[in-house]
Amino acid sequence: MKKMIVMTALMCQITVGAKAQIYAGDSYMRYPTVDLYDPAIMSMSLRAHAEMAARRAAIFDQYAQWAADAYNEERWNDAIKYASSALSIFDNGQQYFIRGYAYESLGALKDARKDYKKSKKMGYGDAIAALERVNGKIKAQRKRK
Question: What is the DSSP letter of 34?
């Protein structure tokens, strides 16, 4: 039902916006039509998208820097918080690695393994050895049980 309503609305927009042949006797065509493509509106929209992308990149960079600082200072909870915030903006192998290392340092090995796998998949080189290390720790835990 929703799909039909959306399609009907879209067809109405196209019909109203399209330039049609106007005949003198057509009373329903007395209103001016609108171009479907307005260069000024398109330009404004593209500028807005570019500005938003630049703001998102700047925010990501700030969170990534904070995550790296927390990682270097061994503040693991902060590293997790900032890396997670950065990852909510863009996927990044280094941020997955930082968060994985913080999880590993706090003893959350399954979460660390999950992040290391994502980091490895994204091509972050340090994740390979870290993933092997965590897998070894998980196997050792299973043997103890």
Answer: -
**Contact (CB, 8 A) for 54 and 72:** no
Kindly report whether the global pTM for this prediction surpasses the value 0.85.
Answer: no
Query: Which residue from 122, 127, 72 is spatially nearest to 100, judged by alpha carbons?
Result: 127
Does residue 128 sit within a domain? yes
Domain count, the chain: 1
Identify the pLDDT of residue 27. 54
Task: Tell me whether residue 66 is in a domain.
Answer: yes
Q: How far is CA 79 from the centre of its chain?
A: 19
Determine contact, residues 89/60, Cβ cutoff 8 Å: yes
Domain of residue 69 covers: 55-144
Residue 49 lies in a domain: no
Segment 36-74, tens digit of pLDDT:
667 888 888 899 999 999 999 999 999 999 999 999 999
Burial class (CB in 10 A: 0-12, 13-18, 19+), 85: middle
Domain containing residue 127: CATH number:
1.25.40.10
Task: Return the DSSP state at 36.
Answer: S
Question: What pLDDT does residue 13 have?
Answer: 58
